[in-house]
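Exercise 7b. Backbone tokens:
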């Protein structure tokens, strides 16, 4: 289990090792992203973390159009990274 501080560091560093492990949602925009999203970094106090994209969507967030967080967690995306 990863704690929120480690998740936040992964977001700040855009650490690709954490793609597929969690998504983060931004309360002010209503959008959720994967840790490596190239969008501007949000303020920490506006961020919530979710294990799965579906959980973020149930909470009312929509997927980011820049980083496509649903694709980051799909089996095809993982297979593509393994083959690369």
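Sequence design result:
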């Amino acid at each position: 289990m990863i704690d929120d501080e480690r998740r936040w560091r992964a977001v700040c560093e855009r650490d690709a090792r954490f793609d597929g492990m969690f998504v983060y949602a931004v309360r002010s925009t209503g959008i959720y992203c994967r840790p490596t999203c190239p969008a501007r970094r949000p303020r920490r106090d506006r961020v919530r973390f979710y294990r799965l994209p579906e959980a973020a969507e149930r909470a009312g967030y929509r997927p980011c159009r820049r980083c496509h967080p649903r694709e980051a967690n799909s089996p095809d995306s993982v297979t593509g990274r393994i083959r690369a």
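Instructor comment: The chain has one domain: 4-83. The mean pLDDT is 89.
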